[in-house]
């Protein structure tokens, strides 16, 4: 079994060199996931000079570990959105998701991209809460969606109550995006990997972005880093929390051509993926607030409750959930800094849309979704009620890691020690070599836990991740925790 996402296995993507000189561009895009690459794609059609920098490798962040559904049936989001933003905005969000699917399909068709795109039925079901299903069905009917009802999935499982549409898709997200990267290169977008932006300062109407060794001067900066807190006080931690899920892929005999997700927690989500005659079922379970369940071995074990299947790939992923359920896409204050984040686990549609909205703002084009996703929209009472939960969950994890190292979670390959007066974590690899890191997250000083399945040091408070040698692989921390004897 491989502890990696099925999308990363065998994917062919271009490699790019590290930035080693100072440069001057119209638009700098920071981050090479679906948001950054989609923004680069749309911006590359104009006359602006565009540069994209990625601190690690392109398309190896959250985007590489998605389930790859392109759907507008997103649990029971529309009835929830009515409570937060009213019926009109709930309908506008529905339109945005359908437009995002059209946008991606259009790009795939016009560029003849081979990315296993399949039209499938998309089901939403619930094991118990029939009322919430009924409310959502009523609303979607009112919005004119052609919904059908069913109490059985195409694969034969009986479900309490469900509804489905038949105009949604699944695809191979990395085949799609790596082709967009190729197109960007053809259109002269300048791309660098292993190039981390560490600060952004405004000077005479330009932004001076500092990387490890160089400066990039830009008129516009697109922050597409998934978790954009490190650069400025946008107060994201008070407006969002993280949700983590566990995923496995195993071979099955038949492609039932559907995707499904349930409404009440824990979320179960599934789809099929067919490649070269092999059919895989991809199954996501055990989603939870990132701060609360940190024993990774136990979390992964939940996946393997059934011994009927032979799991070939397993991985985890986490996404930013906003308190008012809408993404943050657009311009920050009156600046020329733009962000795209907070996709609530629907970033294949929202990240694609973010690329279009961001490019429309920069190119001074109209876009009907700019106000809906405005990062500075007013937070309503409902969002404020979620704020104490976000605050409590981070504080809870912070205190928990200071009180206990939970040594019983780990094998004898993981140790915690003091070296030169500093707390360190040590992982011993298969060859017996010790990998030592500082056991303190640079972001807000939480102690780290070790994820022995995926071999990463994880911050249980805000989700930063580091590899076994301390290199930062996911934010909010933008800094490494590499240990040095000096
Ligand atoms: C379990 C799970 C399943 C999901 N399934 C689906 C699905 O089926 N359908 C759907 O629509 N959505 C799904 N999503 C959501 C979707 O995967 C994400 O919302 C989306 O991939 C986020 O993309 P991104 O571009 O914001 O982030 P990323 O892909 O993480 O890209 C950000 C990039 O920025 C880089 N970076 C960070 N800091 C810096 C810096 N300082 N300098 C340079 N580069 C930097 C990072 O290294 C990274 O590569 C799922 C999410 C989860 C958690």
Verbal overview:
The protein contains 7 helices and 24 strands. The chain is globular and about 65 Å long. It is 24% helix and 31% strand. Helix 1 packs parallel to helix 4, helix 1 runs parallel beside helix 6 (347-362) and helix 2 (77-110) crosses helix 6 (347-362). The longest helix is centred in the N-terminal third of the chain and has 34 residues, at 77-110. Strands 3, 4, 5, 6, 11, 12, 13, 14 and 15 form a 9-stranded mixed sheet that branches. Strands 1, 2, 7, 8, 9, 10, 16 and 17 form an 8-stranded mixed sheet that branches. Strands 21-22-23-24 form a 4-stranded antiparallel sheet, with no helix packed on it. It has 486 residues and is an alpha+beta fold. The protein has helices at residues 34-43, 77-110, 130-142, 173-186, 296-301, 347-362, 381-403, and strands at 23-30, 50-53, 69-70, 118-126, 148-152, 158-170, 190-192, 197-203, 206-211, 215-223, 240-252, 258-262, 269-275, 278-289, 311-322, 328-331, 337-341, 414-419, 422-428, 434-438, 449-451, 456-458, 465-466, 472-474. The chain has a domain at 404-474: Rieske [2Fe-2S] iron-sulphur domain (Rieske Iron-sulfur Protein, 3-layer Sandwich). The protein binds flavin-adenine dinucleotide. Residues 30-36, 53-56, 61-63, 66-69, 196-197, 224-226, 245, 247, 284, 317-319, 341, 343, 345-349, 351, 475, 478 line the site of flavin-adenine dinucleotide. The site of flavin-adenine dinucleotide (FAD) has 39 residues, from helix 1, strand 11, strand 15 and helix 6.
